[in-house]
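Task: sequence design from structure.
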């Protein structure tokens, strides 16, 4: 692995100038490395962070990827990580014209990392440097405690998706001017999201309304803001007065165990807190990337296409570019290509905004020709997609902008799979062309870890009580026992886990719809033995 040569670096700097002229914003300093396919395979399990801590699962993944490469050799075009400065990796056999396309793609990724609100907690972090310090600390612990370090890593990684990530998001990028009062916090975080459950887009509109009022008079902003809220939501004041902030639960199991475990507080076990903190911080670092995969790749694909096609250095390589770009951004009829769907949704939003279609008047039009001909020529397309880049996650993008017009424009559909008994094969068929069905299919594929809370009122030095907030999907039962063993070790006492399971009521014929019921279940882990009880 080595830095790109000066000729290639000059190309990157020219791409930066053109990208900034188009409106992208990113730090001046970036590092670009040439890597081999072997380097890619070795770094892949560490998510391309060269300094990430060593762990046996990484070695297993390397062996697995080496086996895959022997059967299906391939060369990824690039990988970029959100560090300070941003670091990107490239193959050593790319021609200059291809590097131009790839550099635009990478710069758009960096622009997204450094401007999207979900990454605000990471804006100043040099994660590569932090990871190196963490790696050295873990190696030092290994020399003293041996295999117990890997046990703690394993137990921590079994719950590292439950980190209370959204509770840690700062408000600087949303609410301007001053610290939020409890009333504003209740309105934005509890009332809108949990009580009346408005769409995310409406929450952002309310935040913008508050910011707009605050620009005129920050001291009176709250009273003016809530005078309008009381008209729109008469029930708000009563809900707020009856609301008592709960101090009896925690939504971040790792953080709670780190701070309150009697076992970890013992002098001989305090090193385990450091290991858990490393695993948790690593998980938090990757959390926004997991939740913005589609919009991030769509943003990068949109800009590499937008900037490269207008670049005079494309001359003579139009066909080569078209072939590679089609391979990257072609819509998959079976499965999901995040590059394709993300890019087309961003283009869809740009077109809607340019024509003034992002308003209620347009939504009321039911006539197909009327919707097609509607055009206010606002010219606000670029402004709209830069707003997407700043404020949206995958869920918000998909849930807000996948509509029937988008489905029809790109001939999208939900694919079903069935057995053809006559031919003895599986066959695929078009199951639905409805926007709601397609939206549900993609949203169901998104990362959505279980919401598990610590019931502080029923937790003490000897018992840890966990409650799963049921959201329509049950916990994957084969993982429960092993995960609870790890939590029992880290807590140093008995662990209770309350959850909901879906049970089929009775056998039904093929023509009848099966019926299901929900049952409250309490798992108990004590001395590495699990018991199950129906509440």
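Answer:
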């Amino acid at each position: 692995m080595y830095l790109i040569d000066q000729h290639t670096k000059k190309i990157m700097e020219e791409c930066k100038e053109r990208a900034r002229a188009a409106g992208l914003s990113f730090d001046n300093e970036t590092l670009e490395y040439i890597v081999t396919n072997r380097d890619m395979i070795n770094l892949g399990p560490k998510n391309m962070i060269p300094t990430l801590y060593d762990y046996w699962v990484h070695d297993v993944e390397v062996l697995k990827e080496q086996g895959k490469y022997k059967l299906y050799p391939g060369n990824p075009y690039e990988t970029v990580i959100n560090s300070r400065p941003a670091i990107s990796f490239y193959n050593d056999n790319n021609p200059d014209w291809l590097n131009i396309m790839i550099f635009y793609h990478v710069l758009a990724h960096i622009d997204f990392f450094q401007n999207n609100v979900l990454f605000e907690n990471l804006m100043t972090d040099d994660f590569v440097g932090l990871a190196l310090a963490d790696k050295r600390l873990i190696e030092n612990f290994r020399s003293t405690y041996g295999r117990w370090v890997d046990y703690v890593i394993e137990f921590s990684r079994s719950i590292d998706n439950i980190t209370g990530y959204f509770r840690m998001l700062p408000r600087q990028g949303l609410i301007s001017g001053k610290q939020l009062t409890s009333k504003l916090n209740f309105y934005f975080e509890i009332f809108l999201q949990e009580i009346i459950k408005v769409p995310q887009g409406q929450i952002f509109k309310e935040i913008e309304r508050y910011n707009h009022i605050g620009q005129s008079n920050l001291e009176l902003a709250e009273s003016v803001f809530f005078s309008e809220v009381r008209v729109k939501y008469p029930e708000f004041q009563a809900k707020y007065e009856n609301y008592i902030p709960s101090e009896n639960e925690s939504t971040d199991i790792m953080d709670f165990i780190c701070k309150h475990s009697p076992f970890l507080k013992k002098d001989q076990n305090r090193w385990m807190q450091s290991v858990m903190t490393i695993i948790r911080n690593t998980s938090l670092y990757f959390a926004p990337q997991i939740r913005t995969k589609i919009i991030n790749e769509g943003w990068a694909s949109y800009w590499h296409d937008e900037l490269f096609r207008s670049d005079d250095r494309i001359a003579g390589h139009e066909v080569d570019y078209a072939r590679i770009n089609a391979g990257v951004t072609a819509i998959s009829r079976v499965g999901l290509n995040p590059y394709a769907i993300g890019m087309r949704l961003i283009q869809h939003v740009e077109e809607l905004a340019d024509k003034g279609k992002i308003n209620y008047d347009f939504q009321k039009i039911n006539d197909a020709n009327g919707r097609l001909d509607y055009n206010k020529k606002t010219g606000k397309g670029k402004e709209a997609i830069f707003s997407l880049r700043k404020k949206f996650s995958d869920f918000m993008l998909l849930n807000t902008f996948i509509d029937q017009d988008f489905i029809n424009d790109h001939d999208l559909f939900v694919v079903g799979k069935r057995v053809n008994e006559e031919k003895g094969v599986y066959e695929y068929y078009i199951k639905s062309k409805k926007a709601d069905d397609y939206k549900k299919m993609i949203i169901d594929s998104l990362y959505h870890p279980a919401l598990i809370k610590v019931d502080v009122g029923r937790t003490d030095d000897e018992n840890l009580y966990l409650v799963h907030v049921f959201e329509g999907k049950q916990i994957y039962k084969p993982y429960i026992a092993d995960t609870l063993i790890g939590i029992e070790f880290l807590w140093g006492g008995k662990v209770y886990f309350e959850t909901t399971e879906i049970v089929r009521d009775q056998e039904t014929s093929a023509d009848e719809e099966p019926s299901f019921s929900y049952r409250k279940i309490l798992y108990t882990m004590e001395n590495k033995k699990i018991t199950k009880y129906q509440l």
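The chain has a mean pLDDT of 86.
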